[in-house]
Design goal:
247 residues, Immunoglobulin-like, 14-stranded mixed sheet, disordered N terminus
């Protein structure tokens, strides 16, 4: 009798996020293609707690640990869309808030962060990246990515109807740098006006976008990352993004 042994190889990679670089052990396991159906809602006020009744329409979607030796923290997301924009909610287990930056548009990926990428039109290698820290600071940028060469561009006239709405909350501790906690949440509204001039925006019923969700955590001085659709060496491998289907 022959015994078959399944081996899941592991690859040491350098993952890029904007201009950042971090190295981890990333599994080569390729989960099935990801599809997330997005329900429609009326606009509502975000609180960072995810307690608006509209969120009852959306099911939680788990993010997956990218490393074999990372922190075994649960991370999950929800998403809704309205006539004016997109709503994203993230809930993450954590132990320590590794977050010292206290301004928007900083290199937030170098500390604890939640990220999502939106690629509305596959004809063009240009997509929107959004990052938010547990302290509620953000990095919204547009990414032109040509053959793996990319760099983020900040929004211009970033105010009024073009500006995001964002809030974070912390469980089991205080919302401050270095605090011991049990987890944190981030709730974000992205207006369609901010996504101009990306094509295929705003979405209608039946519209399909490519997208991905990520998290990075730095507890105990060790970088651990999660993704929704499995990418390899870079978060910016947009051809491997999952698909959003707007209902």
């Amino acid at each position: 009798m022959k015994i078959r042994v399944l081996v899941v190889p592991v690859l040491a990679v350098v993952a890029y996020c904007g201009s950042c670089v971090f190295t981890q052990q990333v599994t080569r396991e390729e989960p099935a293609a990801k599809v997330l159906r997005i329900r429609q809602t009326e606009d509502f006020v975000i609180s960072g707690r995810g307690d608006a009744s509209a969120w009852k329409k959306a099911a939680w979607e788990p993010l997956h640990l990218r490393v074999t030796d990372g922190h075994q923290y649960d991370t999950r997301v929800k998403m809704l869309y309205s006539r004016t924009g997109l709503y994203v909610l993230m809930d993450a287990e954590d132990r320590t808030l590794t977050a010292t930056m206290k301004k928007d548009f900083l290199d937030l990926w170098k500390e604890d962060v939640f990220e999502f990428f939106l690629w509305p039109d596959e004809r063009y290698p240009v997509y929107f990246e959004y990052e938010i820290s547990p302290l509620g600071f953000e990095l919204p940028i547009l990414i032109p990515n040509f053959g793996g060469e990319f760099f983020g561009w900040r929004p211009w006239h970033y105010d009024g109807e073009r500006k995001t709405q964002k809030a974070t909350t912390v469980a089991g501790g205080q919302k401050r740098s270095g605090a011991r906690v049990t987890g944190w949440k981030a709730e974000v509204f992205v207006p369609y006006d901010l996504l101009k001039p990306l094509q295929n925006v705003p979405p209608q019923s039946g519209t399909r976008w490519r997208a991905n969700f990520y998290r990075v955590d730095y507890d105990d001085g060790k970088s651990t990352s999660w993704d929704w659709a499995r990418v390899g060496t870079s978060f910016h491998e947009f051809d491997k993004f999952g698909t959003l289907v707007f209902e």
